[in-house]
Amino acid sequence: MLSKRITILLQQLNEATEHRISLLHKAFTPPMHETYIADKTFDKIDFAQSGFLKGEYENCIFNNCQLSEVNLSGCQFIDCTFNSSNLALAKLNDTVLRDVTFKDCKMLGLRFELCSQFALSFSFDGCQLNHSSFYKTKIKKAIFNNCEV
Question: Fewer Cβ within 10 Å of end Cβ, the chain: N or C?
């Protein structure tokens, strides 16, 4: 009777341990992005109408694109350039911006403090950043050239 009870307890302990390991694995494994796009140029696309594909964008260029109020949460932009694009009120929760350049963009009301803070780096040239927030964001190396803030 005692050995059966010990066997049951050991089985329950093993199941609980496996469950905890599974939870830890989920917590520390970075999420897979649905899409990986590299070296692509997007010209005059209205993503507010067509929708924006969540994923990782590397070395991409966005020219005259409409991204106003688009949900960019969870997306990664690495070595990307946005030229004359409208990103006003875009959602940036956990968005990765690594070595991203914004030139002549409308960027009203963006909350950069919601971006992923890991390796956050960007530059702005001739951008409208009115009502955007950088609260407690480490932006010592950020460049703001001829911008409205």
Answer: N
Residue 140 near residue 120 (C-beta atoms within 8 A): no
Q: 23 phi and psi, to 5 degrees?
A: -65, -40
Interval 37-93: pLDDT, tens: 999 999 999 999 999 999 999 999 999 999 999 999 999 999 999 999 999 999 999
Q: How far apart are CA 54 and CA 9, in angstroms?
A: 45
Q: What are phi and psi of 16, to 5 degrees?
A: -65, -40
Q: What is the DSSP string of 66-122?
A: B-TT-B-TT-EEES-EEES-B-TT-B-TT-EEEEEEEES-B-TT-BGGGS--TT-EE
Q: What pLDDT is stored for residue 71 in this prediction? A: 97
